[in-house]
Design goal:
This protein is an alpha+beta fold. 48% of the residues lie in helices and 12% in strands. Helix 6 runs parallel beside helix 11 (251-267) and helix 7 (208-219) runs antiparallel to helix 11. The structure holds iron/sulfur cluster (2 copies).
Amino acid sequence: MTKEVESTTKTIFGKEKNPSSIVPVKLTLDSKLKFRCHPGVRCFTACCGGIKIVLTPYDILQLTKRLDIPAYEFLHKYTQPTYLEKTDMPGVMLKLREEDNKCPFVTPEGCTVYTDRPSACRYYPVGMADFHEGGSRDADGNEQTSGEEKFFFIVREDHCKGFEEDKEWTIREWRADQGVDVRDEMNKEWLRLVMRRKSFGHQATLSEQAKRMFFMASTDIATFRKFVFESSFLDTYEIDEETVAKIKEDDVELMLFSFKYLAATLFGAQVMKIKPEKVKAKIAEIKMRQDESVLQSIKEYEELKAETERKKAETRVENK
Ligand code: SF4
Ligand code: SF4
């Protein structure tokens, strides 16, 4: 393995260890790119080692289907824990092979999961900066759009010979070819959760329980389905029948639904409603607790008063 490859860290969010390889030019969807990657390039699979590939929920969903194994087995065999985007949000990245520090899915013939390869592998070498991901929303949690917030850039590393190939396309064409557009759509709301957490910084605390829920929903859709259908979840939230039917059968729909649920529970986004009767019951419960504490205070006050009176009476008797 070359030195350049070892010093490189690639994530879906962009370069982490080698920012000098980012070409400092802002590109649009119509900008041209001369690049091609195929088994004939000298560097074939050189970019599949010494890297950090953070997995999105959609990546995990596709890879577990491809490998036909449950999420917990996939997580155990092929991933290791990481924190997302220097936040305290837990996630997973591909666990590189101990013997050669390469991706577990790479062989000399190429990627064995190519059509289901993770988003980060598809983006390379075109990065995208999306300033909207910080989650600018109004007080009700609705998205606020303000014109063009995205641009693209090229990550150009010495070991990558794809730039010497004679194929030219626009960024738009290249992204469509790599299936990046579909991935962007699938990852969008999840990435926003991470970027919102990042923009909040460490001032806002997130409970351990909330982090566990984020991890579970992000990595194991089967367990999240159990949580939805085998707990009091559907009794608590107002979810229309059509959505219930969709998320029961369709993993992708359930994944997209989980992002909404996380936005509501982690950041208070007004995207899911608790049933009115549940809200009423909660208010009644709080009121009952308050009433009980008022009664308890009155009782304690009366006891204290009685005690004081008793002591006063005793003092008067002694002074006689
Ligand atoms: S998943 Fe495939 S493309 Fe991505 S790093 Fe592994 S072998 Fe390379
Ligand atoms: S051309 Fe670039 S992307 Fe393709 S295998 Fe070589 S290093 Fe990887």
